[in-house]
């Protein structure tokens, strides 16, 4: 589908769901239900905090989150959920389920992977942690902990009120570049899910439903011939030369790609000593665009750049796609329900100590906004433009109605994937935002169980947004999960 057609489909679906008209549903949950659920989340707040801070300290990268997943699975099992571990070919993935008769199947997503290179203490000044390789610069320690907390509270409400349906928590590893959720979708693990809920740590409180960018990522491994760089350079064929020629070709390619294309790369291995011609080098690439078809086309051209670089430098190159995701499909029907519940929960109030933390941290930022924004809820809307990042939640949004929110877990003005976010995610302000998210998720889940008409309307909107005759096909093909994508580049690797 061309991007113009995709926009048209999104616009027509938004109009069809009545963006400017409030939704009215027949059987909303009562104030007593809401009070019961909010009380349950508050009671579970210490456990949310404990899980969030422990996972923050583990700081495990994609597909290596053994301690993090064990902690979350343990909490869910203790709360009465049945656990299936190691699903979708991913050792750290799991599905936790509580079923009470026939009714809607509602899924809540839980992430828990960290980012490499962002080890930072929970202090408002830059203080790296020696010897630690990663940090939670995207706040996934909060994400997983709050999602589990929401599920525990929601399950308690279902039991007390004999609410019919099935509640699941999907423990999804390796969101950061590993496309962990894609394998869940590809294996059909969302086929019977009626609605999927998620959230994400953010700088503000918002249930705005937006789009994202489709993405393909992968590694190019060049192999050459080592030699003494001074004594016998003519005998060498530099694998690093292959990487650098490829990078030059890819950079020239930027001028001739469709608008909004993004190409990023990092050299993950380039040799060990200047006087040795490297016989192995590796570069890691991302290609993004709102339209998956454009991503595939540009990625093919990047592969040609790699082949040409190998030919030019007398080396060989191996290509491996390690990740690939769709663009996110928003759902206005669900977005309005989520927004209403976020407004019932309200904004966040910081203590004097938390305000001091935030103000100190903001001295490292350029023109930061007021910290008072964490007290408010952003106006609701559906955004059909923007979305500079990518997420594997997107693939889920093409097979089941999906809705998310963000809460203020970070200091306003902080950049994503930054040491500032790591610090906040390990501090009390991060936990406060996570508890707000848990409350909103639990209330929204209750609305869905209580009123199947919402689910029916959300499914109709999904059908309209994705168009007729849609068949899901993963961007990353039929490869198994790239379980080693976060491990250091290895000249002997044959992944």
Automatic annotation (TrEMBL):
Pfam families: M20_dimer, Peptidase_M20. Keywords: Hydrolase, Signal. Residues 216-309 form the Peptidase M20 dimerisation domain. InterPro entries: Amidohydrolase, Aminobenzoyl-glu_utiliz_pB, Bact_exopeptidase_dim_dom, Peptidase_M20, Peptidase_M20/M20A_hydrolases, Peptidase_M20_dimer. This is Amidohydrolase. Residues 1-26 form the signal peptide. The keyword DNA repair does not apply. The keyword Repressor does not apply. Gene3D superfamilies: 3.30.70.360, Zn peptidases.
């Amino acid at each position: 589908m061309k991007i113009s057609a995709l926009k048209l489909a999104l616009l027509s679906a938004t109009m069809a769901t009545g963006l400017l008209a409030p939704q009215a549903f027949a059987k909303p949950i009562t104030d007593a239900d809401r009070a019961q659920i909010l009380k349950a989340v508050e009671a579970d707040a210490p456990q949310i905090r404990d899980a969030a801070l422990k996972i923050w300290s583990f700081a495990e990268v994609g597909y290596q989150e053994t301690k993090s997943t064990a902690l979350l699975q343990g909490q869910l099992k203790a709360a009465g959920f049945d656990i299936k571990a190691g699903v979708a070919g991913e050792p750290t993935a799991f599905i936790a389920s509580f079923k009470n008769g026939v009714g809607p199947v509602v899924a809540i997503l839980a992430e828990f992977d960290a980012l490499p290179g962002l080890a930072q203490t929970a202090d408002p000044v830059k203080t790296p942690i020696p010897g630690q390789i990663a940090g939670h610069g995207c706040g996934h320690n909060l994400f997983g902990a709050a999602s589990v907390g929401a599920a525990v509270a929601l399950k308690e409400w279902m039991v007390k009120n004999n609410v019919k349906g099935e509640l699941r928590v999907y423990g999804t590893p390796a969101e950061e570049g590993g496309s962990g959720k894609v394998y869940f979708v590809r294996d059909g693990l969302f086929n019977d899910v009626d609605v999927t809920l998620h959230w994400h740590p953010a700088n503000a409180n918002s249930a705005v439903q937006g789009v994202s960018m489709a993405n393909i990522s992968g590694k190019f491994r060049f192999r050459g011939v080592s030699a003494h760089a001074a004594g016998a350079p003519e005998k060498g064929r530099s694998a690093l030369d292959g990487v650098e020629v490829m990078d030059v070709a890819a950079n020239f390619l930027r001028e001739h790609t469709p608008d909004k294309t993004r190409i990023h790369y990092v050299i993950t291995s380039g040799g060990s000593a200047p006087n040795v011609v490297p016989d192995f080098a590796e570069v890691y690439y991302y290609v993004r665009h709102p339209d998956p078809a454009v991503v595939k086309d540009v990625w093919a051209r990047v592969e040609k750049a790699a082949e040409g670089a190998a030919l030019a430098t007398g080396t060989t190159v191996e290509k491996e796609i390690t990740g690939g995701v769709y663009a996110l499909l928003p759902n206005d029907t669900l977005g309005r329900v989520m927004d209403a519940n976020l407004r019932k929960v309200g904004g966040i109030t910081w203590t004097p100590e938390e305000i001091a933390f935030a103000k100190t941290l903001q001295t490292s930022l350029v023109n930061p906004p007021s910290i008072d924004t964490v007290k408010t809820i952003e106006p609701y809307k559906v955004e059909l433009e923007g979305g500079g990042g990518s997420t594997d939640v997107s693939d889920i949004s093409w097979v089941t109605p999906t809705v998310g929110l963000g809460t203020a877990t970070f200091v306003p003005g902080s950049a994503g994937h930054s040491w500032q976010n790591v610090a906040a995610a390990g501090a009390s302000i991060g936990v406060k935002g996570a508890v707000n998210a848990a409350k909103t998720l639990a209330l929204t889940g209750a609305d869905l169980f209580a009123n199947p008409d919402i689910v029916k309307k959300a499914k109709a909107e999904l059908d309209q947004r994705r168009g007729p005759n849609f068949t899901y096909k993963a961007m990353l093909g039929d490869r198994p999960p790239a379980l080693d994508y976060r491990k250091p580049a290895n000249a002997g690797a044959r992944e």
